Amino acid sequence: MTTENIKDRYELAIIGCGPAGMAAALNAKIRNKDFILLGTEYGGSKLAKAPQVENYLGFPKISGLELRRHFQEHLQSMDIQAVKQKVNAVYPGSRFTLALPEQVIEADAVILATGVSAQKVFPGEAELLGRGVGYCATCDGPLYRNKSVAILAYAAEGEHDANYLAELCTKVYYIPFYKEVGVLDPRLEIRRAAVKSIMGQNKVEGLELAGETLTVDGVFVVRESLPAEQLVSGLALEQQAIKTGPDFSTNIRGLFAAGDCTGSPYQLLKAVGEGATAALTAIRYLDELKQQK
Ligand SMILES: Cc1cc2nc3c(=O)[nH]c(=O)nc-3n(C[C@H](O)[C@H](O)[C@H](O)COP(=O)(O)OP(=O)(O)OC[C@H]3O[C@@H](n4cnc5c(N)ncnc54)[C@H](O)[C@@H]3O)c2cc1C
After folding, report:
1. Cα of 270 to ligand 1 centre, how many Å?
2. Euclidean distance between CA atoms 2 and 77, whole angstroms
3. With CB atoms 3.0 to 4.6 Å apart as the test, which of 35, 95, 122, 235 could cross-link to 12 if both were Cys?
4. How far does residue 7's CA lie from ligand 1's centre (Å)?
5. pLDDT at 109 over 80
6. Ligand 1 atom 7, closest CA
């Protein structure tokens, strides 16, 4: 599905198209729900990295890449398409509002299947979140007009944000943590250095790199995924994972979670089983909502 085909509203939004999100989508499709499957990498990047999977029922000794291909083919055969979009924020309300990079959509129910990020949180990041630290340049960029910002990018998606910010800000530093950097606005300054901390008392004042300190008013962090509590504010956690009931509901009505993001063991069968169960719970919730109307 291309971004032009995205509607303004769905019954169900599934965030993350790894094994958990794919399993959820399968059940939503079978139950004829109006849903959207959103994710930064179709099939999930983790599965592709598994050299050999030996514990997935029905597929003895299969590579992660090949298993992912089977999953994708299964979805394609049912005409399920994933939309390659990162969700920057989910706002609960009478309906959920989802902030995509260049668009806002609504959904009556949401399943989080966002996995866990292996990338570390920078010192100062959590403390200064919302006070100069942000994750979405499109949403927050205008606040930094004529100011200085830095972008810490784990993914090439950061280039898009950086080029946009170069138009607004007096100074933009781009700090990539990946190898092949694409075409960047000449006004950007690239630094390849380890980040020691994001500095500031009540708001961002600087960025400490190995070897130099940059004076900046804002820092955007671009990762493939966002920590769940930063994606949805007010989401209850337990031991750093999303806290769910046995039906994979969270503390927020209409919001469900499945897969690695609900905690260990980090295993495919668990992710797939939870994705399927969360979808069935979400479907029951949607049916009850309809009856109340
Ligand atoms: C090297 C390696 C080997 C492994 N081997 C095995 C094995 O042999 N057996 C086994 O059972 N398990 C194995 N695993 C674990 C298994 O891969 C995971 O348990 C499984 O992938 C979890 O699925 P998931 O859907 O919950 O999360 P993920 O696969 O992590 O998928 C989550 C997806 O959501 C996307 N996403 C996150 N945030 C957002 C957002 N804000 N907007 C849009 N998309 C977002 C992510 O980019 C990702 O694509 C292995 C993992 C690794 C890394």
Report:
1. 11
2. 18
3. 35
4. 27
5. yes
6. 53
Buried b (16+ CB within 10 A) or exposed e, 18-42: bbbbbbbbbbbbebebebbbbbbbb
**Statement: 3-117+226-292 belongs to CATH 3.10.20.30:** no
Atom of ligand 1 minimally distant from the CA of 265: 19
The residue to which tokens 């100069």 are assigned: 132
Q: pLDDT tens digit string along 3-60?
A: 668 999 999 999 999 999 999 999 999 999 999 999 988 777 788 888 889 999 999 9
CA distance 98 to 121: 23
Pocket residues for ligand 1 (CB within 6 Å)?
A: 15-16, 18-21, 38-41, 44-47, 49-50, 53, 55, 86-87, 113-115, 224-226, 231, 259-260, 266-269, 271
Q: Where along the chain do the CATH 3.50.50.60 domains lie? A: 3-117+226-292, 133-222
**Which atom of ligand 1 sits closest to the CA of residue 87?**
42
Residue nearest atom 10 of ligand 1, based on CA coordinates: 267
Whether residue 126 has pLDDT greater than 90:
no
**Of 138, 163, 154, 134, nearest in space to 40 by CA:** 154
133-222, CATH topology level: FAD/NAD(P)-binding domain (3.50.50)
